[in-house]
Amino acid sequence: MKVACVGGGPAGLYLSILLKRQDPSHDITVYERDPEGSTYGWGVTYWRGLFDRLHEEDPESARALDAASVRWRDGVAHVGDLTTRHRGDEGHGIGRHRLLELLAARARALGVRLEYAREVTAGDLPGDTDLVVAADGVRSALRDRHAAHFGTRLTAGRNHYVWLGTTQVFDAFTFAFVETGHGWIWCYGYGYGPDRSTCVIECAPETWTGLGLDRSSEADGRALLEKLFAPVLDGHPLLGRPGGSPWQTFRTLTNRSWHHGNLVLLGDAAHTTHYSIGAGTTLALEDAIALATAVREHPGSLPEALARYETERKAALLPVQSAARYSAQWYENLPRYIHLPPERMFALLGQRHSPLLPHIPPQVYYRLDRAAGQLDSLRRFKRWLGPKVARTVHARTLTGRD
Cα–Cα distance between 186 and 200 in angstroms, integer? Predict the structure, then answer.
């Protein structure tokens, strides 16, 4: 099979690795519009479950990924002058640049052609291609060529955020909430190398404009943020990317259909989930696994393979998309939770994916959750009620009802 994968991010590279391992006779080329090594971004996160899955699919790349990653088990929340720490699941961080280096090296070793600084559009795809993979991100040109068929929908979030780096190395997944005269501003920080961490900073629109971040230069804005988060940065600077680090509002992307003829969507071209659940890279790699598996199990029938891939991944994404939606809403409604005692606020931060939480007073939910941890019957009732509430809220959203 001749495969053209447009987009050299984690999804496209990992798919090329899996397809080539399944059948070395596949003719696979990955096209990336940017020069090699010019990737933007800081660190990405993944969790133990993904690593175990990667080890099953391709042990060699999994070992390289594991060796280049940092780990943490604790979560720390700083709320003003108060701090609380909790033990959690094992998390991993790796620089996006390093992740792409490792995947590119593995793909090349298997015989995949990588063409960098090569922008491919729908009008100049290589001829006689059996499968075209649109792994070209949220602004996918290949997808937009058939936007009516795919049913692409973008929904803008409310809060503003900026993605930065820092030389402060966090030893835990770190949250810091700072109150200003214009409202709260907060950061998520996590290590991804021996001397670097990612630091995502978020705030409500009124805080963003009140602090003047909407009109500050990139350097002045970073200086203000360094001052606000000085206690957790401990004298270390915040780092922007070349050309500046723009403030954004997160856009949730969905598609009604994921394939059209021999063209299939992968990763951010197919879907996005709010960064606060740290699932973007995991979902992209899981897409690649599912697509490669479908191709392997439906030899000679590409339409069946693409239909299976779409059905399987859409179903797998439903709970993740729900969790991401509620997570984003938790931060958008931060004043509802921020004045709780820190250990309770942090506990509800960990429960922010729950569809029940927005409908129950926070203190009541906290007590119910603690009780559910000790009573099997209450825990079962909570698991039963949560999806029912989620379905009801989702149905009302679709029909425009409040």
Answer: 8
Band the pLDDT of 95: cuts 50, 70, 90.
very high
Answer for the pair 131, 262: CB distance below 8 angstroms, yes or no.
Answer: yes
Count of all residues that appear for the chain in the document: 402
Judge residue 282's burial from the number of C-beta atoms within 10 Å of its C-beta, 0-12 exposed, 13-18 middle, 19 or more buried.
Answer: buried
**Which residues does residue 199 pair with via DSSP β-bridges, in sequence order?**
164, 189
Tens digits of per-residue pLDDT, 351-379? 999 888 998 999 999 998 888 765 454 44
d(CA 240, CA 40): 10
Token readout for 237 is 């600077």
Give CA–CA dist 266/12, Å, rounded. Answer: 8
Q: In whole angstroms, how far apart are CA 185 and each of 166, 198, 257?
A: 17, 16, 37
Task: Report CA-CA distances (Å) from 128 to 121, 131, 134, 140, 272.
Answer: 16, 9, 17, 22, 31
pLDDT digits (tens, 9 = 90+) for 184-238: 999 999 999 999 999 999 999 999 999 999 999 999 999 999 999 999 999 999 9
Give me the DSSP letters along 140-186: -HHHHTTHHHHT-EEEEEEEEEEEEEES---SSEEEEEEEEBTEEEE
pLDDT at 397: 44
In terms of Cα–Cα distance, which of 39, 36, 52 is closest to 116?
36
- Name the pTM for this structure: 0.91
Torsion from C-alpha of 30, 32, 38, 43, nearest 10 degrees: -70
